[in-house]
Amino acid sequence: MAPAVPLALLALLALLAPGLGAAPGCDRPAHRWCSSRDVAAACQVESRCPSLPHPVAAPVELSLYYESLCPACREFLVLKLFPTWLLLPEEMLNITLVPYGNAQERNVSGKLDFECQHGPEECLGNMMEACLMHEAKNFSTYFPVIFCLEAGSSVTKNLEACLQIYAPEVDSGRVSACVQGDTGVALMHHNAQVTEALHPPHQYVPWITINGKHTDELQALAEASLLGLVCHLYQGEKPDICGGSKASKIPSGCRR
Fold it and tell me: Is-above-0.85 flag for pTM?
């Protein structure tokens, strides 16, 4: 009931000074100035309208450019990125995964071929994860499977087991068909283009961009305390988990 008095006073002042004119919506009764955020802003009474819904903040956008067999990439994804995603509300963090890294795309007799830093098995792992994303569509479906693959003993041999545990609704046969067909090649070509378009160009993996930007400072902060960084950058109401997070070290990245 407390806001009623000041709102009434403001309404009275508006009536006593008609030459100033009323802002749009402020010609209605004062008790209705809190009916919407636009009207409250026009009437300059937002601070006296506690019932107004808070605007939804944009999520922090994180893109991870990585290789499926790079040890530092696997450790960041398994020990930093996945736990942070689990701990935070969905609306706080939006993640894009781009498995390609330091690979090289070649045109061999009119067909695209890829050479990867950690050999043919890494190329297979990159394509497998790209095809998994393509087939599963939903991030909350495929990310736990990728976590399972990267945390396990073999990225390329545990797809069936990881799908059974985390996403039994995804058909492993469709993922395999994608890997063996033109779709997998097209997905890797897309990842190559996206990776090569980075500005500044990536120098190592994992290569992390935050809200579309990469700096040495952002990279270091993400590697030291990703949870703390996301909590700091998010502009909306923050959950209790953002009360504190400690930094820790991870191995140096896989450089070219």
Answer: no
> Which domains does the chain carry?
4-48 (no CATH), 60-255 (3.40.30.10)
The Cα 135–Cα 110 span in angstroms is 27
Whose structure tokens read 């009434």? 8
CB-side exposure of 93: number of CA atoms within 13 Å?
A: 30
CA-to-CA dists, residue 211 to 21, 63, 231, 234, angstroms: 42, 8, 14, 11
Nearest Cα neighbor of 44 from 74, 59, 22, 65 is 22
Amino acid at 58: A
- What are the tokens at 78? 């398994």
Q: Which amino acid is at 53?
A: P
Max Cα-Cα span within the chain: 84
What would the pLDDT profile of 161-209 be if each residue is shown by its tens digit?
999 999 999 999 999 999 999 999 999 999 999 999 999 999 999 999 9
Q: State both tokens at 161.
A: 């087991």
Which residue is associated with the tokens 């693959």? 149
CA distance 125 to 103: 12
Task: Write the CA distances from 137 to 131, 143, 235, 241, integer angstroms.
Answer: 10, 10, 28, 28
